[in-house]
Design brief:
alpha+beta, Multidrug-efflux Transporter Regulator, Chain: A, Domain 2, 8 strands, globular
Length: about 180
């Protein structure tokens, strides 16, 4: 069974607020699976959320972020985490109007050299790797648990230590 994360676990991993998660779901930016009234996020959802958080921290509006995420999905043809973990580094570059997706360091340098205005660059591969490392660090061993409905579900992490909660709170405060 695939690993699923609850809203609380995603908040702890990414440092965003529960209201942001709800709003992003309502706006179709990241739409999780549902089990009753509970939102359950896949590993791909969490990786894409990390990219959204990175773009938001860099000052992108949600409208622009939505456009970038649609562009990435169209260009890659599959989920971001599937593509990025395939081995090559993907870099997202934008000058505010145009969006570039490159996986060659030479092409990235060419775009930066030929740009007539400042460019923002985000290494998508690094962002996905960082969230995967954070999940491995914070997640306890996978174990089945029973929800209120009596059905078995996967729980990615049992409890987060107080130091890890403090780190998540600091990330929220900085964003």
């Amino acid at each position: 069974m695939a690993v699923r994360f609850t809203s609380e676990q995603v908040v702890a991993l990414t440092g965003i607020t529960p209201r942001q998660l709800q709003w992003w779901d309502e706006r179709g930016i990241i739409v999780p699976a549902r089990e009753g009234r509970n939102r359950l996020y896949s590993m791909d959802d969490v990786a894409e959320m990390a990219v959204v958080c990175q773009l938001r921290r860099r000052g992108f509006s949600l409208q622009r972020v939505r456009k970038i995420m649609r562009y990435l999905q169209k260009e890659l043809g599959k989920r971001l985490a599937e593509t990025v973990t395939a081995g090559s580094d993907y870099h997202l570059l934008t000058d505010g109007r145009r969006i570039y997706l490159e996986n060659s360091a030479k092409e990235v340098i060419d775009i930066l050299k030929n740009s007539k205005q400042p460019m923002l660059a985000v290494c998508l591969s690094d962002t996905v790797r960082e969230i995967h490392a954070e999940i491995r660090t914070q997640a306890g061993p996978m174990h089945p648990a029973r929800g209120r409905s009596g059905k078995r579900k996967n729980v990615a992490a049992r409890a987060f230590s107080s130091s890890q909660r403090t780190m998540a709170a600091k990330r929220r405060a900085m964003s």
